[in-house]
Amino acid sequence: MVDPEDGQLSRRQRERLWHRQLILDAAEKLFSRKGFYQTNVQEIAEDAEFSVGFLYNMFENKELLYQELITARAEEYFQKTYEQIENANTPPDKLRAVLRTKLNFFERHRRFFSIFANISSQMDSGPPPMMSEDCMSRYRKYQQKLEEIFASGVRAGEFEDFPSSVAVLAIEGITNTIIGQWVHTGKNALESIDPEIIERILFDGFRAGRNEK
């Protein structure tokens, strides 16, 4: 229980959180290596050095374990992104911060992104596991934040007057595609594609001489 005097977690609660994290780490490793469908609960329990019964005491099933893993990593990414957005001044700088944060997050958590690549390659094993409603809600909030940034840039005359929802889809689409390529090819990420090139494509387009106007 939480100590009412100082709001600190009890030793039992800290241990429980630590055990859950060990299980999540083991699941992330195995899901990225073997795929969601090819990994069973017993393998996750063994890798985390717990019994299967102990794992089920923490997580009701493999699907809920997957959902918590995805939600936790997503929240970590969103939090880092919001921090970088707050540290940037102009709308273009804020979107550049989003791009760089996403690519850098991939560098640190390549294994996490490999989970989605494995699921895509194993679609014949069944439909992809559902994300939790909490995770979907957080992603919609993230999209809305990017749309607000783009809209503010339009109002300031720094961006063309495109629909903000389409602009965000373009940003997410190009970064997701690049990450997917890195996952499948195994190439060293930021050495193979310069983030500045992505920024120039998104902000300046493909037409020659555009910056000279």
Largest β-sheet summary:
none
Mean pLDDT: 85
Contiguous runs where pLDDT drops below 50 for at least 5 residues: 1-6
Q: Please give the share of residues in helix.
A: over 70%
CATH class category of one domain: Mainly Alpha
* DSSP strand content: under 5%
Helix count?
10
At the fourth level of CATH, the homologous superfamily of one domain is Tetracycline Repressor, domain 2
Radius of gyration: 20 Å
- Structural class determined from secondary elements: mainly alpha
What is the string of SSEs from the N terminus onward?
HHHHHHHHHH
CATH topology of one domain: Tetracycline Repressor, domain 2
Key structural traits:
single chain, 213 residues, mainly alpha, Tetracycline Repressor, domain 2, 10 helices, 72% helix, 0% strand, disordered N terminus
Q: What do you see in this structure?
A:
With about 210 residues, this protein is mostly helical. The chain has a domain at about 65-210: Orthogonal Bundle (Tetracycline Repressor, domain 2). Helices cover about 70% and strands about 0% of the residues. The chain contains ten helices and no strands. The termini are far apart. The model is unreliable at about 1-5 (pLDDT under 50).
Short description:
It contains ten helices and no strands.
How are the secondary structure elements laid out?
Elements: H1 11-34, H2 41-48, H3 52-58, H4 62-87, H5 91-108, H6 110-121, H7 133-155, H8 164-185, H9 189-192, H10 195-204
